[in-house]
Amino acid sequence: MLHLVRRSLLVQLLSVYLLFMIIVLLGGLAVNGAVERQLSGDVQASDQALAQEIALETNLQIRDAESSLAALGKQVNQISDPRAVANIFQTYKLARPDVDHVYWLDPVGVLQVTWPLNSEALNTEFSPPDVVQRARMAVGPVFEVGIAVETTFNAGVIIAQPMRRSDGRLAGIIAASLSLVELSEPLIAVVNAQQRQGRHLMISVIDGRGVLVATPQRERILQTVLDELPGAEQALHNHTVSQLGRGQDGQDWLFSAVPIADAGWAVVVQRPAQEALAVVAQFHLWLLAAIILFACGGLLFWIILLSRVIRPLHTLARQHQALPSSKLSIPMDTTIMASRGDEVGTLARSLVRLELDGLEKLGELRTLLETSNAVVGSLEPHAVVRKIIREARRLVDVQAAAVLLPDEQGTLRVLVSDGHSEQYDQKLALTAENTTSAPVIALRDGAPVQKILESGTSSFSYEDGFRSVLAIPIISRHAGGVVLLVHRTEPHLFNQNEIDLLLTFANYATLAWEHAVLYERSDERLHEVARENERLYRHAAEEKQKLASIMESMHDGLVLTGIDGTILYANQGVRNLLGLREAQLELHSISKLYAALRASAVDLPQLDAVLKRIETAATSEAMVMVNSQEQQRTLHLRLFDVEDEEEQPIGRGLLLRDVTRERELDEFKTTLLAAVGHEVRTPLAAIKGYASTLLQEDVSWSGADQRYFLQTISSEADRLAQMVKNLLDLSRQEAGLLQLNLSPTSVENILPAVVEHERLQYPDSSIHVQIPPTLPEVNIDSARIEVVLRNLLSNALVYGEGSATILVARQGDFITIAISNSGHGIAPDELPHIFERFYRARHGQQQHLGGTGLGLAICKAFVEAHGGKIQAASSQRVTTITFSLPIAVAPATIETLTIDLSPEEWRRV
Question: Is the torsion defined by CA of 813, 814, 815, 818 positive or negative?
Answer without folding.
Answer: negative
